[in-house]
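WARN no homologs supplied; continuing
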Amino acid sequence: MAKKKTSPENTEKERKMPVQGHLGELRSRIIKCCVALVITTSIGLVFYQPIFEFLRRPAEDLGLIFTDLTEFIGTYFRVALSAGIAVAMPYLVYQIFAFIAPGMTSKEKRYVLTMLPGVVIMFLLGCAFAYFVAMPPALRFLYTFGSDIATPMIKISNYVTVVIRLLLALGLVFETPIIIMALARMGLVTPQWLADKRKYWIVIAFIISALITPTFDPINQTIVAAPLIILYELSIYLSKIVYRERKPQVAPSTT
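OK structure emitted
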């Protein structure tokens, strides 16, 4: 029986179909994420006053002002969007996982699913550390530095920018153990390699803290760098638990 010939046009369509399917799936996930952000941001717009009070609490003695007609409304939407991203974070992470899941094995899927709660928990812990530990001394330093020379008048847009940046940055940095655990589980890094790079991480931790903290004094930078170093040590310990050595791929023998 003669084989059915395939034209170059049909071959090209077969080659493009998987890519088109992935693009369609990606578009669907992005739309779902956008819809979720619209819903959560709308909730943030409704409850903007308690959110503002929450952000102001670490520096209640600050008399915030705004000097432009559009400044406060811009800050209002920025706060609502940031709150919407924080609330929608678990759903956004799930959508990312759902997009990459078809290319994963069943064991990898189960492992990632067990890590998803840890991603959310570590992000919240990072935000809590920023809010209760790192933010008050940093704001106090910035507010009092030079106050004997000039009277500080803090714009609300500047204050909100500093606070949100610190919250989100530390929330993401606290994901370090989860990321390293995933790399160790896939065999991309080893516990011994992580332990050998400990001294480099100490330097990197202070560089990250210098980029995150809005102040330049060593005390506040140490407040941020210290938990990063502790998180790295925790990552080394967790990597010993989950590490699986990658098996070398054996090329098929040809006879």
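Residues 29 and 98 are 8 Å apart (CA to CA).
OK
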